[in-house]
Amino acid sequence: MDILEYLKKRQSELEYKGHPMSEKDEGFKYLYCYGLGVMAVGNLRAVTELQACYDKILGSICISQKNRNQIIIDINNYFDFRIAEFFKRINSKEMQYCFMADIYKLYRLSLWSQDYCKGILDNYLKVFRFSDAECNFFENFNNAAQQGNVETAVQCYRKFQEEGYDVSYQILVYFFPGFSMEEYYNNIDIKAGETFVLDKPSLIEGDITIERGGSLLINGAYVNMKGCIRTTGGRVRLDNARIKVDECESGYWMNFKETAVVNIENSFIDCGKTCGFIRQETGRLIIVGSEIRRTAGERAVSFNGLSSLIENTGFYNNVSGATGIYGSAKMVMKQCSFNDCYADYGGAVYSESIGNVKIENCNFNRCKAAYLGAAVYFKYQKFGQYARGCECNGCIPPGDGIFNVYEDDFELRVR
After folding, report:
1. CA atoms within 13 A on the CB side of 107
2. Nearest alpha carbon to residue 150 among 122, 170, 177
């Protein structure tokens, strides 16, 4: 099964179950839901028609029961004070666009209360100072969503972009759960001072080059790519990204020199057995809560920078090894899983660094070395390099899971 394709098919369902603002703090979520409550529970007719949808939104945004109960009290007793707080807090375009998506979801259900709800909707648009282009976008995109017309919704969004505006793909899909579109790019050059955001399903044929001072953010996007990412000083962050590398002539999908920080969180990377995942020669590398699959030709991760944290991350089918640590790099690796990783030395982890390398509570499953260190190979025996609380399952050669550590720094369960 192609896992990436499976995730794509479930994208709308997964996006709809969660609210784009669910990770905000409780104070923000209270004011956000208070603003919605003005429409949903501020009028007796509206309560009858909108309560069920409103409760569903409150559930998806994960507001506390205490604050749910407080909303109706504050609408009845402290309206002027709370609505002023609301407008002060909901102050960015992204917040306002998401809020209006929820307002339109409620407004769709109004019949008896339509006049009241339309007045509330129009007032929010005025206070947010939305332009004619923004107002038209929400009206037309809402109509397309009600009709289930994806083609019209895409045309509406494209026109919105042409007029100089944008809204995140996460909010578009939340607004219209059936919405789907794909961006197409050739080579992408990111200049100094620019931030290039990929947040929509994208097909990229060519390389992404980031100049010093430029930034690339892949945020919640499904990306199919024929090429690699290069930088000699730019910044890169992957957050909830889904990457499939179809072709790559470089040894690594990401090649980074003179980079300060690379941050990869909650992401899925499938290199399609075409290349390694990342080579980084400077700075810090953080990989948390991610999966790195089907790398070949080079180790999945090659790190020669200052320090790296790899935590709660899975490596699968890394046929030239999973991680390599070099120079004086420091690395902390916690609660990671290595599965079917192969190399001459150290199928999962190869270290020839003179810095501290700490491996804790990791699982090594069916990892293999042609010579030494089925799971982990330390070239230099020194204090500060250790593997503790780890487990080897079916690794080859048996009895040689971790090579070249002090006896006190070695703790391995073998099955």
Report:
1. 22
2. 177
Residue 148 is classified by DSSP as T
DSSP notation for 276-291: EEEEE-SSEEEEES-E
pLDDT tens column, 297-334: 999 999 999 999 999 999 999 999 999 999 999 999 99
The token pair at 146 is: 């009600």
Question: Can the peptide bond before residue 397 be classed as cis, meaning omega within 30 degrees of 0?
Answer: yes
List Cβ<8 Å contacts ≥24 apart for 341-345: 341/315, 341/317, 341/367, 341/368, 342/318, 342/367, 342/368, 342/369, 343/299, 343/368, 343/369, 343/370, 344/369, 344/370, 344/371, 345/369, 345/370, 345/371, 345/372, 345/373, 345/377, 345/403
The C-alpha atoms of residue 49 and residue 288 are separated, in whole angstroms, by 43
- Distance, CA of 78 to CA of 83 (rounded, Å): 9
At residue 413 the predicted structure's pLDDT band, cuts being 50, 70 and 90, is low
User: For 190-261, where are the alpha helices, taking DSSP H only?
Assistant: none
Listed in sequence order, the DSSP H helices in 78-184 are 79-89, 93-107, 114-127, 132-147, 150-162, 169-175
Query: Is the Cα torsion angle 28, 32, 37, 40 positive or negative in sign?
Result: negative
| Phi, psi torsion values for 336, nearest 5 degrees | -105, 160
| Residue 407 pLDDT | 53
- How do residues 248-288 score in pLDDT, each as one tens digit? 999 999 999 988 899 999 999 999 999 999 999 999 999 99
Average pLDDT, rounded, for the chain: 92
Q: What is the pLDDT of residue 380?
A: 82
Closest CA to 291 of 236, 229, 358, 337: 337
What CA–CA distances, in Å, run from 35 to 23, 55, 82, 304? Answer: 18, 14, 9, 50
Using CA atoms, how far apart are residues 170 and 226, in angstroms rounded to an integer? Answer: 24
DSSP structure string for 53-94: HHHHHHHHHT--HHHHHHHHHHHHH-HHHHHHHHHHHS-SHH
User: Which helix or strand (DSSP H or E) is residue 325 part of?
Assistant: strand 323-325
Residue type, 241: A
| Cα 168 from Cα 276, distance rounded (Å) | 30
Helix axes 44-61, 93-107, angle to 10 degrees: 130
Nearby residues of 33 by Cβ (< 8 Å), 6 or more positions away: 57, 58, 61, 63, 67, 68, 71
Residues 336, 261: Cα–Cα separation, whole Å: 21
Task: Give mean pLDDT, residues 94-112.
Answer: 97
Q: Which of 266, 326, 274 is nearest to 291 (CA)?
A: 266
